[in-house]
Amino acid sequence: MPRWLLELDLADGPVPWIIWGLAAAGLVALLIRPLRRRWIVRASIAVVAGALIGWFLVVFVDVADVFGVPMPGAVHWWTTAGFAAIGLAIASLWDSHWWRKVVAIVTVIGSVLSMGIGVNQAFALDRTLGDILGINTLGPLTHFAPPLPGKADPAQPLADTWTPPADMPAHGRYGALIGANALKSSAGFRPRAATIYLPPAALVKDPPPLPVVVFMMGLPGYPNPHPMVDVMNEFAAKHDGLAPIVIIADQLGAQDQNPGCIDSAAYGGVETYFNTDIPNWIRGHLRVLQDPKYWTISGYSNGGACAFIYGARHPDIWGNIATASGEPWSGFGDPKSVEKAFRGDKALFDASKPQAILAEHPGAYDGHYAIFAAGALDKKYGPANKVSAGLAEAAGFTTTYYLVPNATHTGPGLRGGLEKAFDVLYPHLGLAR
User: Fold this and answer.
1) 92-135 pLDDT per residue, tens
2) Which residues are CB-neighbours of 351 under 8 A, at least 6 positions away?
């Protein structure tokens, strides 16, 4: 598939409006005809039938819990309208000239595309066709300020000493870690390419050491950088270009598999990848602050489960945990998804839950921060994150639990959760006064 097609922006810009406009023009063209009673009856039946099919399809998906999360309200309306339009187009194929049949076929295609774009925007997770298909089209980002060996972390918060130089760009940059800079697994895991985000402060001639965040997206999914990059650029713009360096990494290995956040014979060393390989790469390649206080493990949904697990099990690496609509443990949304990783070993499964891991590290979390956010309308992950926050607080974390107003387990919940997390973390990381 051509790269330009994969990179089309389906969330903003002209593409959605062009497709919606073409579909609307097709519908208008189909309606401009002699209104004979026979056609009116047939078209009315087709439109109503299509609308009902679209509406009840979404109801079925919700009732059967096909995706493990409730459908956003806009999905109902997009699907209803889309199938109604398809019904009108199909009805127009009979008793019509050849050109009207062509318009009807084009309208069906336009309606399907319009519906897909509308549904995608309702979830607000994927920006491009590449994002939807899990294909990373980013070019590499290869120039990083090297580490400063032997130099201790500064005693003062960076926000107190930082003055943006004239050469600082307005926005951060991001790109794929591929080729010589690829994040490789030492234990047999096969991750998809990670993405790195460098904030404006990291792009100046002599940048300061910065905090670092490792972030994971959900299941199904891939290391989509856009949600985190958008939030980081927003924070950097408010704080003189200061933001953490972020690595968006892959904890799945494929779009629809769940390695359970652990090292396993089935998937290889996922946990080793995140808690040995990635930290070693960071220390060897990036100019970052070294104290765990400045290192954050973060994730959305399935990635949130891994973030909680890794932050609990490796307090010597990760000083902070930030989850947005995170699962309380891997397999929470679909227990069967982790059977291959755990091989039916219930004892191993239970020992891999944060509750058990936290109990293994008494007194290890003093000064560590944990933020658990979820959509206020998310009846499944909202209460689950409240339980997670309670466990973390009891274990000694400085804990924040936050419900994102009017959000479910979709893009607004993710974005709102990340915004709250970094509102809390910025002063702690020395990026805000």
Assistant:
1) 988 778 888 899 999 999 999 999 999 989 888 888 888 888 88
2) 357
Distances (CA, A) of 322 to 203, 270, 340: 25, 19, 27
244 contacts 210 by C-beta, under 8 angstroms:
yes
d(CA 134, CA 224): 8
Other C-beta atoms closer than 10 Å to the C-beta of 75 total 23
Res 3: pLDDT:
80
| Residues linked to residue 248 through DSSP beta bridges, in sequence order | 195, 215
Q: Two tokens at 239? A: 């704080």
- Run of H or E including 62: helix 37-63
Tens digit of each residue's pLDDT (9 = 90 or more) over 349-365: 999 999 999 999 999 99
pTM of the shown model: 0.91
The CA angle 172-122-407, to the nearest 5 degrees, is: 80
**Cβ-based burial of 355 (10 A; exposed 0-12, middle 13-18, buried ≥19):** middle
Flag whether pLDDT at 403 surpasses 90.
yes
Which range, 36-40, 94-98, 412-416, has the best average confidence (pLDDT)?
A: 412-416
User: 293: which DSSP letter?
Assistant: G
Q: What does DSSP assign to residue 138?
A: P
**Nearest alpha-carbon partner for 337 in 269, 224, 257:** 257
